[in-house]
Amino acid sequence: MITAALLVAVFAVLAVPLGFAAVPTVVRALEAPEPTPVPTTPDIQLPPTELTPPAVVGALEPAAPAPEQDILTAALNAELILEGPGEISAIVLDADSGENLFERGPDNHQLPASNQKLLTAAAAMSKLDPTRRLTTAVVAGDRPSELVLVAGGDVLLTAGTSKPDAVVGHAGLQTLAEETLAALDPADSPFTVTIDDTLFVGPTLNAGWLPGDIAAGEIAPIYPLAINSSWIDETASGGPRSPDAALAAATAFRDALALAGGDSGLEVAVEVTRSQAPAEGGDQLAAVDSATIAEQVQHMLLTSDNYLAETLARLAARASGQPASFGGATETIDRVLGQLAVPTESLVVSDAAGLSPRNEVSPAQLAAVVRAMVVSDDPALASALAGLPVAGLSGTLQERYADTATAAGAGLVRAKTGTLNAVTALSGYVVTAEGRLLVFSFIASGLDGNTGEARAVIDRAAAALAACGCR
């Protein structure tokens, strides 16, 4: 029988090692813990934040074999199957020879949606100097202490300071205000700000535009001066637009000038009105310049900027001797296409952005425009191609070509997108697995609630072109 004394002895023996074992644990607990290493991801595994140009771009091999028509036709017919309402018209051309490799209703004239901007880009790069910059200037008006803000066609202004490395916001109204202030004497206060936006003529709204598109902010009245294509929130490419972009920009300039001149005692009248610069131009007090025309055309294609498209078309019209109006713009586009040997039979150009339901363009005409850019000896016209979105990487194609059905086209398909309620389109170019450059245009029309499905079908077809050696 274990006695009480024995139990005490046993527990005393056991307590000694337990005590010695416990002391280091307590001490370690009181010490500062070792920092937990923060896991890091190697740079090579981080997702890309921008496109990296390849170090070496090899020229295409002229002798690369073209796809065989019967094999290519079978590959495309397997993809161009649309369940539900609507039909798909298509054409695929060999870029070098112009040979028709595939067609399905290539001459069906229909709404091109924003593929219309390909026509606008061709006109702008054919009629405007690609290195030209659009100047927004402040000149002395005819009346004492009148400052006239002269619109030069820049609709990508920012209300803040100029951003030399940007396209949107390359020229800033705050920068313009600060430079204007340096040329003024506060003793001549109060100053008045007026806006001369007479560069464009005619109606500011296209008669073909639907009220719903205007209300939704797809487009707005066109003026030759705007902050980021007339978006009320210039940091967003969506939402409501200003109904008077020129007056809004002039008001932003006036506010920036008043703020900048407050400490020096300069006063600026609150109201901004319209007027015209002196007939002989007036003394220029300050000016800011936009990004180049080439950069703006590329931005227009990359982001599908409706407002910018209409502005560029008017500038092209003015440069070609036509009125800077809707009529002058559409006439200029039509003439340029004829000069580029694009077939214009039954072509209807109602606007520059592709919003008008009156536009009628065929896949054959769109493909001909793309091919004209691809084979052109004019570097200005060819440079427009740099604005085409890259599948899965940039612009309006950035979020597409991410699934297994279309992955073959990622990084290889370059094309202009376009979508309206009953239409989706894709026109551009692609290099095949054999290294042959092809031009294509796909338009799905007559859709009713199945636009997403039609877009996926077209993407699969373009990806099939990229994957197809078709020999």
CATH topology title of the largest domain: Beta-lactamase
Shape call: elongated
Number of strands: 10
The CATH architecture of the largest domain: 3-Layer(aba) Sandwich
Helix and strand arrangement:
Layout: H1 4-30, H2 69-79, E1 87-94, E2 100-104, H3 116-127, E3 133-140, E4 146-150, H4 173-182, E5 191-196, H5 211-215, H6 245-261, E6 268-274, E7 284-292, H7 293-303, H8 306-319, H9 326-339, H10 363-375, H11 379-383, E8 414-420, E9 423-431, E10 437-445, H12 451-467
Helix pairs in contact: 2-12, 3-7, 3-8, 3-9, 3-10, 4-6, 7-8, 8-9
Structure write-up:
Residues 1-30 have low confidence and may be disordered. The protein is built from twelve helices and ten strands. A five-stranded antiparallel beta sheet has the order 2-1-10-9-8, with helices on both faces. The chain has a five-stranded mixed beta sheet with strand order 6-5-4-3-7. The chain has two domains: 69-128 and 299-467, Beta-lactamase (3-Layer(aba) Sandwich), CATH 3.40.710; 133-292, D-Ala-D-Ala carboxypeptidase C, peptidase S13 (D-tyrosyl-trna(Tyr) Deacylase, Chain: A), CATH 3.50.80.20. Helix 3 runs parallel beside helix 8, helix 7 (293-303) runs antiparallel to helix 8 (306-319) and helix 8 packs across helix 9 (326-339). The protein is elongated, with a radius of gyration of 31 Å. It is 33% helix and 15% strand. With 471 residues, the protein is an alpha+beta fold.
